[in-house]
Design a protein that fits this description.
Elements: H1 3-13, H2 17-30, H3 35-47, H4 51-72, H5 76-87, H6 91-104, H7 109-121, H8 125-138, H9 143-155, H10 159-171, H11 176-192, H12 199-210, H13 214-217, H14 223-234, H15 237-240, E1 256-259, H16 266-274, E2 279-283, H17 287-298, H18 305-311, H19 314-332, E3 340-344, H20 352-358, E4 363-368, H21 371-380, H22 395-412, E5 419-424, H23 425-430, H24 432-442, H25 454-458, H26 487-490, H27 494-503
Parallel strand pairs: 1-3, 1-4, 2-3, 4-5
Length: about 500
């Protein structure tokens, strides 16, 4: 490793990412094909939110590693880059790299396994299944590969095969992590097979195992409840409406925000809106969280976001809006063009007070769904570990967290000064066009008949949500009142959810 690369690596260790970028760019100036410098630079740029540039550097590195592999048939370094591409949500780039890598050497298990995962993320279910079969043939005794294979079979509609495979895995005394995932997948498969009486034994088993997995047990479970309490105490209509009559620069326009709760229909909403030619969707990208951190850097001494915002003048609000849009442009480059940005991040619900204060001219869509269906779906779904999803590993915790978030929404909704539209997932399923015509009207958009084909567009791309399989197919009514199949299990959380059921106008039984 030369001196410039060493300085760049030291900067990474010191978390000085701008200095790391400078060092790696200097190294590439001297040696444009330095794969190590390209890989580190790509990661550093992605970490800074400059993903367009970061993806380009990682792809450049991948092409170099493929050239090297063509002579040696050693694809391990190419696979490392493909895994980084997956980590930084460049599944299209990963697919291109992995396709070429397995052409060079198809006997490397990791290549076929990464290819299967990438294809699954891109909703290419049958191809993912074939890649999974090739990977499994290379490592038939690997329990986690067997779990992945069952997941791919379930995605492809082969539920009986997936069930049999999962039964075999669970009978073989797998490790905690493999068993956790197997129980989650088994619950999903049994639900599809309409074997409802067997589903919850697997969900409860997964909940017990989650408590032993550090990726869930070590999450800060107090983070969001504490934020909700602070926001409830700190935000009022006066604060949120303080800048409502202000003139904001054209270059800092208000986004459209889509919020709700996990599994409530926000992904469906973003995919329908994304069909419109005047809309660009940012799918579960943490722009508000980044802006929140900038606010905290501006005033580290204050105890809450509401207190920090009360101290700002208009220039401070403009600084936050400018930071937000810089983050967006770093992430997407020129891809947005002149289209309106839809910022869909489901749990931005917690930060709606911050959103309203900084973007009082924005429009907000809140998607609701029967609370019992939401909680059943959340408990059943395997989700990426986070301080939010750590609350979704038992039915009781799921219901309590849902009720806390919805209590906050009920409190803050009448205080909002931004334009807000609530609508039901059930209405979108039962009366798709009238419901979304109302949404489009609220946003000042003309109705686009192509909206009914949202699932065809979703099937061609990566969707950063556990709902990616559902939104890649036409709407189906079987998702409505799903909770009735599990009414007995839900009796343990009925009291927790009853206020939300009544408040949102759903039938009690």
């Amino acid at each position: 490793m030369n001196n410039t690369l060493q300085r760049g690596y030291a900067a990474i260790q010191a978390r000085n990412l701008p200095e790391a970028v400078r060092c790696f760019e200097e190294a590439l100036h001297d040696d444009p094909d330095n794969a190590q410098a390209l890989a580190w630079l790509g990661q550093a740029l992605c970490s800074l939110g400059r993903r367009v540039e970061g993806h380009a550097r990682l792809r450049q590195c991948g092409r170099i590693q493929i050239r090297n592999a063509e002579a040696s048939r050693d694809i391990r370094h190419a696979l490392e880059i493909a895994q980084l591409m997956q980590q930084w949500v460049d599944f299209e780039g990963a697919l291109e790299l992995l396709t070429r890598a397995v052409e060079i050497n198809g006997t490397e298990f990791r290549g076929q396994q990464l290819l299967a995962v990438t294809l699954a993320q891109l909703n290419r279910k049958n191809e993912a299944l074939e890649a999974g079969r090739r990977a499994l043939a290379l490592a038939p005794d690997l329990a986690m590969m067997q779990v992945l294979m069952a997941s791919l079979e379930a995605d492809a509609g082969l539920n009986a095969e997936a069930r049999q495979r999962l039964e075999t895995i669970l009978a073989g005394q797998p490790g905690d992590r493999e068993a956790f995932r197997a129980h989650k997948e088994m619950a999903r498969v049994l639900d599809k097979l309409k074997m409802y009486d067997q589903v919850f034994s697997h969900l409860h088993a997964s909940g017990r195992l989650a408590a032993r997995l550090p990726e869930y047990s070590q999450q800060d479970r107090n983070l969001l409840p504490n934020a909700i309490r602070a926001n409830t105490a700190g935000f009022d209509r006066e604060l949120m409406g303080r800048w409502s009559d202000s003139e904001f620069p054209e270059g800092l326009p208000p986004p459209i925000f889509v919020i709700g709760f996990f599994r409530s229909g926000t992904t469906l909403t973003q995919e329908v809106l994304g069909v419109h030619p005047e809309i660009f969707v940012a799918d579960e990208t943490g722009f508000i969280s980044a802006m929140q951190r900038e606010l905290q850097r501006m005033d580290p001494a204050s105890a809450s976001d509401a207190e920090r915002l009360r101290k700002l003048d208009l220039q401070g609000i403009l600084r936050l809006r400018a930071f937000y849009w810089k983050t967006v442009r770093d992430r997407f480059g020129d891809e947005i063009g002149q289209r309106r940005l839809v910022d869909k991040h489901t749990m931005n619900t917690v930060d709606v007070g911050l959103i309203n204060t900084v973007f009082p001219d924005a429009r907000l869509l809140f998607v609701m769904r029967d609370p019992r269906d939401v909680c059943i779906s959340c408990f059943m779904q395997l989700m990426v570990p986070s301080p939010a999803t750590a609350h979704l590993q038992t039915l009781q915790d799921t219901a309590a967290f849902y009720a806390q978030v919805m209590d906050w929404w009920t409190h803050v909704k009448p205080l909002l000064t931004m334009d807000c539209l609530e609508f039901r997932y059930e209405d979108a399923v039962a009366e798709f066009e009238p419901t979304f015509r109302g949404v489009f009207d609220f946003l000042g958009l003309s109705w686009d008949p192509e909206a009914v084909n949202f699932h065809k567009y979703a099937a061609r791309k990566h969707v950063a949500s556990p709902s990616r399989n559902q939104v890649a197919q036409p709407l189906y009514a079987s998702s409505l009142a799903r909770w009735r199949r599990y009414a007995g299990e839900l009796s343990s959380v009925a009291e927790t959810l009853a206020p939300c059921v009544r408040r949102f106008g759903y039938e009690a039984d």
